[in-house]
């Protein structure tokens, strides 16, 4: 029996899907993470925006084109949020976020089961890593309850994976893995024995001689003690994805973000004190319901002052069940689109400025496309090189020019 596990959304979903593929293979089945002909499809859905839920539903029809008689199993955030949206689409079984491994027991069943969200980290999925960069999940859930976000209601409260289980997985990584990215719904809240634990985790993993990278972080994580600890981690990649969401204090307050722009800027200043060449990327939502033109201009000004190395920009998406959806009237799509274009233009300029500030970088070669080998520098610049290289090799390269979505190097 061949089963395809298809993924939408974040790196946490991707990790969990890869783990499902591994579990299926251990049970003697043929499994893939590619959209191709199969006997059954498991679709791991996303609900971060309305568009993400739409794409989750569309994935069912895309799978049907490969095999109209295949069984379809749906799980993840979108089915946790609204299981009814997948009924009547020829779906055999619907499950939510919790106990994803149990979907394997239901492969020959039909029905719907949304399990209760766990209070502790579920140590049930263990991914087989085969690429040069490995994602390792260390945390799940979120306690932030930003007014625009549905995820805390779907993923449950924050819970951390046990350190010994993370280290066990790190030890099991093949030599072909040269970089580890630690992922979670709120990585900043990763704890060991009830205390902040990211610094200790990185110190423990430093001995494995693999590049270490953190996924999205929150401002409350950044302080002198944490940065001092990071500066002693030899293999730490100086890339901080520090979520901003808005560069206007009035909007941040309406979003229930627990910092001001001044506090955020001071965090960036601290980072650059310890890591002068750090890549500092961020997420920004444009068109939040209360955002005026003046508010947006403040965001443009703040982004320009901070000089992020890259922006991830999203138009606000109304999510039923969130505080923002209940309290505020949505802005027009035209306003969101216009603001997105303006911020994107600024983001592109800042990205190019950051790239050209770098002279030489260390690049992990991840793949070859056409005439170029591709990979990322430690501070997260996409690099393109021509020459005689091998996938998995780390090379020192000189940046020569802006190229495609990154830099041409030699």
Structure report:
The chain has 410 residues and is α/β, with parallel strands linked by helices. It has three domains: 2-113, 3-Layer(aba) Sandwich (Rossmann fold), CATH 3.40.50.12160; 133-355, pyruvate-formate lyase- activating enzyme (Alpha-Beta Horseshoe); 360-409, Nucleic acid-binding proteins (OB fold (Dihydrolipoamide Acetyltransferase, E2P)), CATH 2.40.50.140. It is 32% helix and 24% strand. It contains twelve helices and 21 strands. The strands form six sheets. It has a six-stranded parallel beta sheet, sandwiched between helices. The protein has a five-stranded mixed barrel with strand order 17-18-19-21-20. Helix 6 packs parallel to helix 7 (224-231) and helix 10 runs parallel beside helix 12. The radius of gyration is 22 Å and the shape is globular.
What name does the CATH topology of the largest domain carry?
pyruvate-formate lyase- activating enzyme
Side by side, the strands of the main sheet go 2-1-3-4-5-6
Q: Report the average pLDDT across residues.
A: 93
Q: Biggest sheet, open or closed, and with what strands and sense?
A: 6 strands, parallel
Secondary structure tally: strands:
21
Strand content: 15-25%
The outline comes out as: globular
CATH class of the largest domain, named Alpha Beta
Total number of domains: 3
CATH architecture of the largest domain: Alpha-Beta Horseshoe
Unreliable runs, pLDDT <50, ≥5 residues? none
Write out the CATH superfamily name of the largest domain. Answer: tm_1862 like domain
Radius of gyration: 22 Å
What level of helicity do the residues show?
25-40%
How many DSSP helices?
Answer: 12
**First-to-last CA distance:** 47 Å
What is the SS-derived class?
Answer: alpha/beta
